[in-house]
Amino acid sequence: MAQETRNAYGEKLAELIVKNKNIVVLDADLTKSTKTIEAKKVCPERHFNAGIAECNMMGMAAGLAASGKTVFASSFAVFAAGRAFEIIRNSICYPKLNVKICATHAGLAVGEDGASHQAIEDVSLMRTLPNMKVFVPSDQYEAKAVVEYISKVNGPCYARFGRGKVEDVYDAKHKFDFTKVDVLHKGKKVVIFAMGLMVQESLRALPELKKLGIDATVVNVCCVKPIDAKGILKLLKENDIAYVCEEHNVIGGLYSAIAEIKGTTDIKCPLVPIAVNDTFGESGKMKDVLKAYGMTAENIVKVVKKTYKK
Questions:
Q1: Which of 33, 138, 256, 295 is deepest in the core (most CB within 10 A)?
Q2: Phi and psi dihedrals of 198, rounded to 5?
Q3: Residue from 54, 121, 246, 247 carrying the catalytic annotation
Q4: 224-257 burial: b if 16+ Cβ within 10 Å, else e
């Protein structure tokens, strides 16, 4: 069933705040949009609206975490990761405080809100920070699992959620292991690494690729930092070519993370990015914007067809 990962975040957070009396939730005047309103409904005394003041909110989060609380702080990704970056760096990551930055409305899928709100550099920003863990769930079940996981992991975490509905990759019974990449389909010679909604698009591309005689391996990389270097290197060694699909700028995101790993080896497998090509987004319907920037199964097939020589 198609669901927004931000909705899954709100549902799981409401469940956790009741179970864990140490959790405190902060929001920057976007409670309904980020879905932290679900936590406010069940536990209003531990939900605080900082107003349109993301830097102040991160400072509040740092103070609460320094007092022993587990803090979930939410806003749109462009504000949470971008506007508040320096506070996150110096007040949260440097002292290794237990703050979970759960950013919604990430990527091009924000659609009509346009370039000013389409955070396509947030993973890059958060990856650069020492002590920060970075997660990009693909569907509602993985999103809920991420929220529960980071609630138990000590230290700063960044989780990226979307506004648009995405189809399920997993089901409620799936057991997640965020220390490893997840091979969703095992093929040969070609491997596709993907994060977020590009996991669904990569899976959608498989039937068309098979018509071309290509049986690609599809890999979900939810935990971008710390990344499963061992698992990625194994897959690079096993394949002739690798594609990296992300609804994010080509600079600094998943493609960069995998290139950094590969760069320390003599592995020959070339990397081909399918990402935003160092440009800003534009306003439009979610499906139209994603299509315009090549974030579709059709474009994955097109790129593989053009670049892979059997």
A1: 138
A2: -75, -10
A3: 54
A4: bbebbbebbbebbeebebbbbbbbbbbebbbbbb
Handedness of CA 198, 37, 87, 132 (dihedral sign): negative
**pLDDT value at 159 more than 90:** yes
Q: To which H or E segment does residue 70 belong?
A: strand 70-76
Is 54 part of the annotated catalytic residue set? Answer: yes
Angle between helices 5-19 and 140-152 (to 10 degrees): 40
> What is the helix (H) or strand (E) element at residue 249, kind and residue range?
strand 239-249
Parallel, antiparallel, or unpaired for β 157-160 and 133-135? Answer: parallel
pTM for this model (two decimals): 0.96
Angle, helices 198-211 vs 297-307, to 10°: value is: 50
Q: Which of 126, 111, 117, 116 is nearest to 81 (CA)?
A: 126
Angstrom distance (rounded) from CA 102 to CA 104: 7
For residue 217, the model assigns a pLDDT of 98
DSSP 113-143: G-TTT-BSSHHHHHHTSTT-EEE---SHHHH
Residue 46 scores a pLDDT above 90: yes
Confidence band, pLDDT 50/70/90 cuts, at residue 111: confident
DSSP 90: I
**Backbone torsions φ then ψ of 240, nearest 5 degrees:** -85, -25
Residues 6+ apart with CB under 8 A from 110: 76, 117, 118, 119, 163, 281, 286
Decide: 91 and 54 in contact? Cβ < 8 Å: no
Q: What angle (nearest 5°) sits at the alpha carbon of residue 82, between those of residues 42 and 5?
A: 40
Reported as type and span, the H/E element at residue 286 is helix 286-292
Q: For residue 273, give the 3-state DSSP assignment.
A: strand
Residue with tokens 């198609």: 2
